[in-house]
Amino acid sequence: SQQGEEDPQALSIQEGENATMNCSYKTSINNLQWYRQNSGRGLVHLILIRSNEREKHSGRLRVTLDTSKKSSSLLITASRAADTASYFCATLSESGAGSYQLTFGKGTKLSVIP
Amino acid sequence: NAGVMQNPRHLVRRRGQEARLRCSPMKGHSHVYWYRQLPEEGLKFMVYLQKENIIDESGMPKERFSAEFPKEGPSILRIQQVVRGDSAAYFCASSRDSLINSGNTIYFGEGSWLTVV
């Protein structure tokens, strides 16, 4: 079943503005990760936040996690045209098969207009 | 240090044919994961393998799909008797340890795009 659900599905902003993407999930998690995918390419890991953390920063990225609401947000500050990509949240949780599974949402397509 | 290598990058198959997708994990990585991505969708987990063993195949369709990760050589995702609905991007990822131990050290390949005509 789909775990992470991002919103908005698509976001268009001007260069220099901030971009905020949200992700909601359903089950308990070990950690939540954000990935970036350029069109026709593989996924690149951006940032990981553990279930006992509330906020994390990495360069222009800021991630928050609210486990009581089962939601996370990714903020990209001072956006650049090169940030144009699809962004996915992924939750790590125990699968029924006794291992851990990374489950992805449908993603937010971000367009940054120069 | 080469990343996760997938080939072919693009594959066209007629309905009923077989598709074989290969994945060479990063050096030193013994855990391999296959995901499928439909257009405009996120990645859906298919199977998790560790050298010679299938650990979790809960996302794999019961029929026509199989995966292996032999002691020597790449991991193979095999789709028999392909149908139009199999058209998708198939991504492989690898990690040195299991995901619970690896944190953010899971690396994705560039994907194999399968088109069934």
Q: What are the key terms here?
A:
heterodimer, A: mainly beta, six-stranded mixed beta sheet, B: 117 residues, 1 helix, 3% helix
Largest interface chains and counts: A-B, 30 and 28 residues
User: How much of the residues of chain B is beta strand, in percent?
Assistant: over 45%
Low-confidence stretches of chain A: none
Alpha-carbon distance between the two ends of chain A: 37 Å
| Proportion of helical residues of chain A | under 10%
* Structural class based on helices, strands and sheet pairing of chain B: mainly beta
Say how many strands of chain A there are: 11
> What profile does the largest beta sheet of chain B have?
7 strands, mixed
What structural class do the secondary elements of chain A suggest? mainly beta
Biggest beta sheet summary of chain A: 6 strands, mixed
What does this structure look like?
The complex is a heterodimer of chains A (114) and B (117). Chain A is 0% helix and 58% strand. The N and C termini of chain A lie far apart (37 Å). The model of chain A has no long low-confidence stretch (mean pLDDT 91). With 114 residues, chain A is mostly beta strands. In chain A, strands 2, 4, 5, 9, 10 and 11 form a six-stranded mixed β-sheet that branches. Chain A has strands at 5-7, 10-14, 19-24, 31-37, 43-50, 55-58, 61-66, 71-76, 85-94, 100-104, 108-113. Chain B has one helix at residues 99-102, and strands at 5-7, 10-13, 19-24, 31-37, 43-50, 53-56, 65-68, 75-79, 88-95, 106-108, 112-116. In chain B, the strands form two sheets. In chain B, strands 2, 4, 5, 6, 9, 10 and 11 form a seven-stranded mixed β-sheet that branches. A four-stranded antiparallel β-sheet of chain B has the order 1-3-8-7, with no helix packed on it. In chain B, a hairpin with a 5-residue loop joins strand 4 (31-37) and strand 5 (43-50). The chains are: A mainly beta (114), B mainly beta (117). Chains A and B meet through strand 4, strand 5, strand 9 and strand 10 of A and strand 5 and strand 10 of B.
